[in-house]
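ok so dumb question maybe but i'm new to this and my supervisor (M.) told me to 'just get the structure for Aldo/keto reductase' and walked off. so i did the thing. is this what she meant?? sequence i used:
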Amino acid sequence: METKPGMMPLLDGTEIPRYGFGCYASYGHEISQAVAWALECGYRYIDSAAMYANEKDVGEGLRLAGLDRKKVYILSKVWPKDYEVAANSAQQSLRDLGVDYLDCCLLHWPGTEEKRRLSAYEQLLRLKDQGLIRSVAVSNFQADQLERIKEVFGAYPPINEIELHPAFQQRELRQFCLDRGIALVAYSPIKRGAFMGDPRILSIGEKYGKTANQVVLRWHLERQQIPIPKSSHYDRIRENFDVFDFSLTPEETQLINSLECGGRRGNDPLTYNG
Ligand SMILES: NC(=O)c1ccc[n+]([C@@H]2O[C@H](COP(=O)([O-])OP(=O)(O)OC[C@H]3O[C@@H](n4cnc5c(N)ncnc54)[C@H](OP(=O)(O)O)[C@@H]3O)[C@@H](O)[C@H]2O)c1
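this is what came out, is it supposed to look like this??
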């Protein structure tokens, strides 16, 4: 059994750690400290975004941890209202984070205007040519939008970061991505703690000495989707990463699969424009 996350190869020839740390909705020293703790615990992928309005603090956390830049996968995102100036937005993220390249930059949401979406993607590809971004990818994209990227730019985005957890499994979109080699990053992977008291997941956890959140995070790993749980508490950051020493049986996996109920937590990408 693996004892740490390992790397997942991507369509564009790069690779991404199989486990990440979310940075949404914490600010100042709290998120700097959380990022530093996460890196100390072994997380190697930091999921940031211009929209989170904390990239300077995230950058401070990277410096606090003091790891070699090449050892950390840093991902940021451009927000739809900035798609006309996507290159500027990504460069501002670089400055705020205090790094000289991003491992990955995503279009945060498809938005409702295709022309702006495609223009933003093209601008990020130019930054990739300049060596400022290693991978250009997307978040919250639907199958037809992924196809359109392939049609226009000749390749699928290597990553689609989408909401995924037992209550909202996006089975069709997930399969579409897996069939085409598009890596899935699972955001809100524990649905912000929604499964903590679920007796069915708790009873699986009891068998392994794990919490319900740990069981859900393990379920993600075994489905080849990269979870990026966020916490600002040291004990939870550690707990969420302590998922590499057990595996679920097919029956346990089946039970968690059966919790699908269309329970989306966030926005609907078909209508949301940022
Ligand atoms: N691309 C997108 O559109 C998009 C959208 C949403 C999120 N994201 C990314 O995905 C990351 C994770 O998603 P998320 O933040 O929405 O939700 P999440 O990771 O499922 O849950 C985070 C919440 O759960 C709490 N929590 C974390 N670990 C816990 C534990 N072990 N026990 C009890 N409570 C725990 C945290 O509180 P404390 O901090 O107080 O511990 C926080 O309120 C974000 O931070 C962001 O990087 C991306």
